[in-house]
Fold each of these.
Amino acid sequence: MTKRFYITTPIYYVNGAPHIGHAYTSIAADVLARFKRMDGYDVFFLTGTDEHGQKVEAAARAAGLDTQAYTDTISQDFRDMTDAMGVSYDDWIRTTEQRHKDSCAALWKKIEAAGDIYLGHYEGWYSVRDEAFYDEGELVTLPDGSKIAEKSKAPVEWVKEPSYFFRLSAWQDRLLEFYEQHPDFIAPTSRRNEILSFVKGGLNDLSVSRTTFNWGIPVPDAPGHVMYVWLDALTNYITAAGFPDTTAPRWDFWPADVHFVGKDIIRFHAVYWPAFLMAAGIAPPTRISSHGWWVVDGEKMSKSLGNVVEPRVLAKTFGLDQIRYFLLREKPFGADGSLNHQAIISRMNVELANDLGNLAQRSLSLIAKNLDGKLPARGDATPEDSALLDAANALPDIVRLHMDRQTFHEALEEIWKVIRSANGYIDRQAPWALRKTDPERMAVVLRVLVDTIRVVATLLQPFMPASIGRMMDQLGVAPDARSLADLAVPLADGLALPAPQGVFPRYVEPVA
Ligand code: ME8
């Protein structure tokens, strides 16, 4: 039976245009989805847009548009951006779709039937920008007397309204037990510790309906109440799997294997979401993998702050694969990182054009020139040959481990160790100098190089699908034989290779 794997991104708010922060989460999820597919899994990869709530309603009003028409336009822009980033999602969900409204109503009724929802009155702080309720202790007071959330710096307002509550306080012990039994549920560890201490500190019941606006999913049998946007939004992950129809073929994908999120929204995913699901008798997801910020000029990029970088423009300037590579290579996944052009150019020129591009180009040109473009056979391996081949052959397992932990930059560093070793090898063996003196040895060296580059390229496909696809063509690897399992089958001796062409251009500053 094929192994299943379910990957999600956050569904993005349609209160403004997409930026590189959104592209980042989606590209990271895409890299894992592509890796799992080439490792033999049946993958379901979900992304989409979060379209309800006060924040989106206010953005539509500010744009002078009908709310649904506004969300249609921005959702499409997010989808176009996602397509432009080469993100291979299987389903695009919008929370304004009927399937999602049905799913939310069904989840609500299950939680209510379990006795975990009751009617009350909310009085307290709310941040529209974060769509979050805050305790006094999570706020700071500004000199003008107004209050903001300490962590996100978002303004808060006092709200007072009838509201349904979710009995979150009753879930504290069961959540702690769940974290205990699933040590890999929250990644990285620093975030796990944060969540543990938040839950240990005690949980208040959570307001899960709003009555002061109506852009949301109606609470069943409760006129005037719409669901709290986070209950609505989180439910998307089961909607797309077919909920409430648990006989739907896609339901076999639930529980999700990885929910990718930014560190701003871990609490919703790691506390509220498993509690909602357990209350409804549904299994919680397997893992919440969270990442840090891309920062521009020292500030977190955000729609509200207006300091955003357009991913499509960046990809046009430097190349899509170059940007995908940069985003996953530049910083550890969980950490913050700074986005600047010099850093992109350096990775692009040094690592892609020089280290990898030149290695392939040099090796393949020598085969084209000296061996009539025919792949030489493997020969007797010297210790140096074996050292390089062994390092290459050990890579798939090492990279798989990093993919399963979402330590993408370490996966790339391991791949680059082998690329750097291969560059050292080609310089020391100097196959160009063997053409006359020892053509047999030259052939063996070139074959060692092709076999090494093939492993490296196979593993890099999820990161840079288009460029590496071209590199695989140059290596003579058939398009239907590029999975990890295919690495066990050697390329045929004498295989005719196409004329080599550079795959990774250098960035040259345009002349003004
Ligand atoms: O929170 N650096 O949507 P959102 C890195 N609708 N990643 C960033 C980023 C940055 N500067 N800025 C944003 C929501 N992100 C909810 C989610 S899920 C059921 C509902 C990414 O449009 C990061 O993944 O505010 C962050 O968590 C997400 O965009 C927030 O997107």
Amino acid sequence: MSKSKVYIETYGCQMNVADTELVMGILNNNGFQLSQDIHDADVILLNTCSIRENAEQRIYGRLDNLKPFKTKNPDLVVGILGCMAERLRTNLIEEKKLVDVVVGPDEYKRLPEFIDMAFSGGKGIGVKLSRTETYDDIIPYREDGLQAWISVMRGCDKFCTFCVVPFTRGRERSRSLESVKAEVEHLSERGFREVTLLGQNVNSYSDNGADFADLLAACAEVDPWLRVRFTTSHPQDLSDKLLYTIAKYNNLCNYIHLPVQSGSDRILKLMNRTYTVEHYLKIIESARKIIPGVSFSTDIISGFPSETWEDHLMTLDLMEQVKYDGAYMFKYSPREGTKAYRMDDDVSEEAKTKRLQEIIALQQRHSTEINESLAGTEEVVLIEGFSRKSDKFFAGRTDSNKVVIIPFVDNISEGDYALVKINRATSATLFGDFLSIVHKREQPFQLAN
Ligand code: 5AD
Ligand code: SF4
């Protein structure tokens, strides 16, 4: 029989993007062929997200779209992976007759087996969570490129009361430092120029006495021209040692994503975030002292149960004090099974929307102000390719994760580091002129996957 062709769509966070690469690695090793063409596929997999209600609604919408594919080809296997698979389990199969395979985040190694079950007319269901599975021994399938996601830990033990992740991804566990470092070395040899270390809460990384700062240092030492980023940090576990490590290595990017969620101590307590606004601001202050020029982004939720207008104003006030470079901003969405689900979702939809709009408007103002203040400065930019709008411009990123657009210059290409003079900015983008090459990427790629 010819190889079965698998097509995968990924929804949600970067962790899911990394998981899709793991799944592709597993399927590839087991004789499946990966396909970019949904019309040609024998298996369609959706790697899903449950973080907010609208993320799940999107998947239901997509499943409805897939019905005609199944009508046309009754042998087609449709599978749900990821957080929704874990949360809804067999309900997905009962509710959506279309679904043949349901596999949660810790059972991907058995996916080939579950797909085979579906090919023989059964249903493939694997939703056990594991305390130990880290997929340390699987090489993710990655196309050549500049930037890669590396998951360094899985699960979360924080149990923020609004969040479904501890239930869908299970207990926290770390990969070995050696295996992460080996992956970084491999990517550096293939010509990659940036890796982002991923975990729900990377600061609680731990492997045989090594903490997250040790892991970052080990990765930074692999290749001085490989930028190392990380996400996400929980304020409770962010150590001074980590800040000093970021300051020490040039290629550890001066950018910290530090979700705050709310500026009200009362709400933070109800969220089980385990820090106060005062503590959070102290971390920001230390980071700014230890890492000059560090930039921050955050996550904010508007309309958590019992949030008053005063609580909301405290969030705006905290934003004024920090002045984030960027933020991901959400309306509270009740998730079944979480502690907050049992609280009264008493902030009206209208109030949630209004508060969110105010938060977004303030963030927009801050991003613009910060970006405009960079006019006249020089930045080292990693060139990522042509700008989305035109091949007369290159797009790249600064160390602090800001997008920079520069006019086309003959002697630079994707993967080079260029020194750029910034001359103007919007809330989302910096514009500048090329000054000189800082480092050229060696070509061509040396190794296959
Ligand atoms: N409602 C709204 N936002 C949420 N987040 C997590 N759970 C919820 C929820 N139930 C947000 C948090 C988190 C980010 C990944 O998603 O801000 O940091
Ligand atoms: Fe969810 Fe909190 Fe864990 Fe982040 S730290 S994944 S918000 S429980």
